[in-house]
UniProtKB/TrEMBL annotation:
This is Uncharacterized protein. InterPro entries: TRAP_TAXI (IPR011852). The lineage of its organism: Bacteria, Pseudomonadati, Pseudomonadota, Alphaproteobacteria, Rhodobacterales. It comes from Pseudooceanicola spongiae. SUPFAM superfamilies: Periplasmic binding protein-like II.
Amino acid sequence: MTNMRVLARLWPLRHAFAVRADSGMTEVSDLAGKRVVTALSSQAATGRGNEAMLTAGGLATDAVQGVTVSGLSQGMDGLTEGTLDANGITVGIPLPQQANATIPGGIRYLSITGAAATDAAITSYTAASIAQSDI
């Protein structure tokens, strides 16, 4: 292949809800009634991702105690301090690694299971969310 150029460099950005490992929660559906970051004032797209994970896990956003934080670090601080039960975060970046080392027993990432845990459901939710938003 001669004269080949790079058009784009892509990598997966895995996003999941982090909880304290000793919380007993293992799936997104376990977040019902819990204090969960549902919006970030500085990162609207991340908040939409958190809402999409809730939907995929079979929960409406009003099924949790939605909390707005300013950014990723404030959400992880809340999880570390015990003022939040779950925070959506990118897996593998330094913030969850630091929380894992700081919280006795570490953190756990929740699984998304159920009928809405499909690519089609997430795509449908995301498209509808973007159409209704101002981002």
